[in-house]
Every structure is written in C-alpha cells, then in structure tokens.
Write a structure and sequence with these properties.
Elements: H1 4-16, H2 19-26, H3 30-44, E1 49-51, E2 56-58, H4 60-84, E3 92-98, H5 100-107, H6 111-117, E4 121-127, E5 141-145, E6 153-167, H7 169-175, E7 188-191, E8 198-199, E9 208-209, E10 214-217, H8 221-229, E11 234-238, H9 243-248, E12 252-253, E13 262-271, H10 278-291, E14 297-298
Parallel strand pairs: 3-4, 3-5, 7-10, 7-11
Antiparallel strand pairs: 1-2, 5-13, 6-11, 6-12, 6-13, 6-14, 8-9
Length: about 300
Amino acid sequence: MYSVDDLYAFAALIETGSVTAAASHLQLNPATVSRRLTKLENHLGVPLFLRNTRNFSVTTEGQDFYTNVAEAITLLRAAENNLIGQSTAPSGKLRIALPSWVLHRFVQPHLADFLEEHPNVQLDVLTTDDPISLIGEGRDIGIRIGELGDSSLKARRLYNDSTVLCASPDYLSRHGTPTRVDDLSQHVLLLHPGANVALDTGDDQPTQRIEWRNRHWLNTAEAAHAAALKHLGVAQLYREQISDDLTSGRLVTVLGDSLPSTQAPVWFIRTDGRLGTPKVDAFRNFIFKQCAGDNANATA
C-alpha cells in the first residue's frame, strides 16, 4: 500500500518537472523520490511516467491520476499546515502562463506592489499565446483568451474583451484605407495565433476568407502589435491590448462599422489541485483587481 508521502512525491514531480526539483522542494534526496514513485506505480499497476537516461515524461494515466487526486493532496497539505500551526502566508514558487501582452498590460505596471505585499512568493513566468496544458508545462495557474476546450480546468472570467482590425495612420496613408471587406485583398495581414483570417461580415452575410496581398506570421499578439505600430500592415488585435494606442491615434480601427465585434473572453485558469493555495489566491486577487472590475463573472 502506498502512503501520503508517496502521493506528495508524485505531485511534486508533476508540479516541478524533474526528480531533482521535486527532491529539493520536499527536502529529500532524489533516490527517495524515485523510490516513492516506484512504490506508487507498483500499487496502481500502471506507469505514471516514462523514463530514460536523460529525462522523463508523464503518461496519460499519470496526468489523469494527478487530475483526480490533486485537490485531495492540496486539502491534505492545508489540513496538516493548520494542525501544526504553520503560517498560511503566500510563499514559494508560483508558476504562471499568460500571453505577453497581458503580462505587460496588467501585471508589470503593478508587479512591485504585489511582490512587496508578498515577499516570500517567487514568480516563474512563461509567456505564450498558445493554449498549453498547465499540468504538462508544470504551471500552477494561467490566463487564457478565447473559448476553453479543456474540461479539466477550473476557470473564472476576468473580463470580456473583443478583437478589432487596426493599422497605423502612416500605413493607411501609403496603402489606402479599406472601405469594404474586399478591399483587404490589397493589404498586408500581420498574423498571430489569436488572429482569425476568416472575417464574419454579419448575420445576413456568409463569413469571408480574405485573400490578403501578403501575410507576415508573428508568434504572439504582442509581436503583431509592435509590427502594426511600425506601419507594416493590418492586424487583428485585442481592444484592451491597444486601448492606449487607439486613444493616442497611434493606431486606428479598420472597417469598424462593417464588421461585428468578435468576442474574446479573458480567463483566469487553474487545475483542481491549486484550489485554496495561498500563493494562488494572492495572485488571483491581484489580477482580478487589475483587470476584472465589474465585468468579472465567476464560472467555477
């Protein structure tokens, strides 16, 4: 039979990404962590990780098992901490995944205040526009934009954003301002993972796929934003992302009256196992204060 310590070793390995890091987190030696994992696997009768001489990867069974037991592990840890009187102040490494423009728009301007209030929290930030697996990437929490397809996640809406086509006045003065959707075929598209080249032209018209004159692929919405400011083309960006540029006139919307608004909800996401963790709660409260306002809508 396995023990609670074996479960803790398994969770630490999932959450830190390596035997060495898990051992350091648990203040054990790596051999002990490996033995506890083997004991758990032998009891369950399935491999939780695939190992070779250089690295390891979690199996499908391992991910499923973690999803099912993570919240129970968190509750056990909390019960132990309460029983022995340990501090519940936020502490430890907090692994976050979020789009780079969200980091720069909402987090960085107020980050010093957060770290001053929670000096024992260490941030490990991964910026990505892709809908990554939090467990697979060893992330505690994330911020995701658009529809959620992962049913294992717990999500809470931060606010409702939308996307707009935009370009710089300098670009439009050189290439012309489109007045119809068909005019976009004469323009350059700044494409990124969150952009949609098929444009919804309204309830009474079919969606159109535009044959742009040229397309530049950029790996993030922030990179597309920077390219638009450099007068390189038309980009489909998030309204909150470019709000300051629209106010200042550095960017202007394109075909604003001809295209319906495309909704892009912004979500705070976590796995079940992060429920009630002080460091997670601290960052959740921080990010909601920065960008939720009256638009926050709890869904989990």
